[in-house]
Amino acid sequence: MNLLPLFIAIPLGTAFVVVLLGKTRETYSDILATIAALILAILPFILILTLDKGEVLVYNMGKWLPPQGINLVLDGLSRLMLIIINVVGFLAIVYSVSYMKKFTAKSKYYGLFMLMLTGMNGVVLTGDFFNLFVFAEIAAISSYALVAFGVEAEELEASFKYMVMGSIATILILFSIGLLYGLTGSLNMADVGRTIQGNGSTLLSFSMVLFLTGFGIKAAIIPFHAWLPDAHPSAPAPVSAMLSGVLIKALGVYALMRIFFNVFGFNLQVSWVFMILGLLSIFGGGLLALRQDDLKRLLAYSSISQMGFIILGLGCGNYWGILGALFHLLNHSCFKSLLFLNSGAVEYSVGTRKLNKMGGLSKVMPVTGATSTIASLSISGIPPFNGFWSKLFIIIGLVQANHFVLAVLAILASVLTLAYYLRMQRNTFFGKLKKELERIKEAPLSMCFSMIVLAVACVGLGIFFYPVMKVILEPAVEVLQEGIKYSSIILGG
Amino acid sequence: MIFFLSFILFLIGLYCVLIKKNLLKMVMGIVIMEYSVSLFLILLGYKKGGFPPIVTAGVEGTNFVDPLPQALVITAIVISIASLALIISLCMRIYQKYKTFDITKIRKLKG
């Protein structure tokens, strides 16, 4: 049996049922959402166990063959993304069971959340451009609504800003899809990729630029980042964890990788564009993070900076660079989600996010303090943890591609990361406990569960990086390195 | 070149989003941009003297119109209506909170 449609059908079905169930009793919607998310989190592992390492699974909707029909494609890269989306999604749902109690209409929250999962799963599985656009819109529109979920003044403002930027991005993407259709007469990615080879048309370059801008806005790479530092901190904590940990990767970086590596083909110009944008993001995001006094805003800027590392690694174009980028993508989804969940726990117990109003919290909130320390050490690249390996691979990739200056800059940027995370740790969890904070209690059990699982994942990915690399990452790297052979793999022949 | 018409429309929309200070006017700019892209897609599917792609006894020849752009535009319009509804409701909520539609006065977020 082919499991691929389930990744879209389960969350889509749950999204509608959960809202109806919420009308009877709110607990039912908790249970249903958790079960659905658990099934979704298990499915990608079943796929990994049953399929061979490099096997590509193609599902043709209604048995219509591409390029006429719609197809879903599962290759190494999609498998990696499915794991990230569904596992982090499950943990965020478990976390929300306690965290979202202070909001009304919890079942509607689950509905929107499930729609967001539908959109992201669809984006990473789909094999044609138009469905990419449709699923990206499903995920984006539900995320606009989720950012504004608290309907306070700041949240509405952030959501409006996010929505204007996001709409412009989708319009540019649709424009570009239209251009590609005009050039090739097809919307299937594999078919388009085959048709445009050797076509040096200016319109093709124009559509590449439009794609880069559109998905660059979604990925919050630096010249297009303005919405992220407002939107991510304003959302409820589990949603911020999903947005920062998963959404910008699934909608932004994944789409960029798929289109630029597998459809257009990777070349020197693209490589330089990626590396320059990556460097800008690393330093811009890092330097802006250094002077933030709001906990979640600091994390949001740090997301921009870490996305820069991923783009920089992809820009190398060689084995180690791409491996490092994909590993950093996996790691970043672990530790950034964890840090956002931590910030949510702090906000839940203390009631503020200002760094100067906290201090010494690890004495009263041991689980949050310990997990947050692990996440901060991981993201700064301290050796036994996972962030170290991914940054090391990216730097090896840069050295192999003879970009020594960029390698040195990447090391410096990694030190910059350590600087702002140390500042965050010192102001929140270490130091003297303030008198008015002595009565603070640890966050509830379901919140602690998600944080502990993610912290274990951070340590585990660091220690067992070799098997993870062999089983999950290498097939994904292969997909990107094969480049435009993608079309012959999907269409055959 | 009729394609430039849709491009000009697109630029008008972009100007609206970038320059106007009223939230609703920005929303209108977005809508104009969406329309321009829809127009562009529909124009791509135009074929002079083409038939609808329905094979019946009376229709001869192969000069069929590709139905793909039409299907695409319908979907894009539905999506844009949904996002329009969401963004207008956001504007209404913002007006309730800030008592203004002026984007320069809606500045509680900093940085």
From TrEMBL, chain B:
| Keyword list, A-Z | Cell membrane, Membrane, Transmembrane, Transmembrane helix
Where does the UniProt annotation locate this protein? Cell membrane
Membrane topology recorded in Swiss-Prot or TrEMBL: Multi-pass membrane protein
Question: A Gene Ontology CC term for this entry?
Answer: plasma membrane
Membrane spanning stretches: 26-46, 71-95
Name of this chain's protein: Cation:proton antiporter
Q: Which Gene3D superfamilies match?
A: 1.10.287.3510
**Into which family does the record put it?**
Belongs to the CPA3 antiporters (TC 2.A.63) subunit C family.
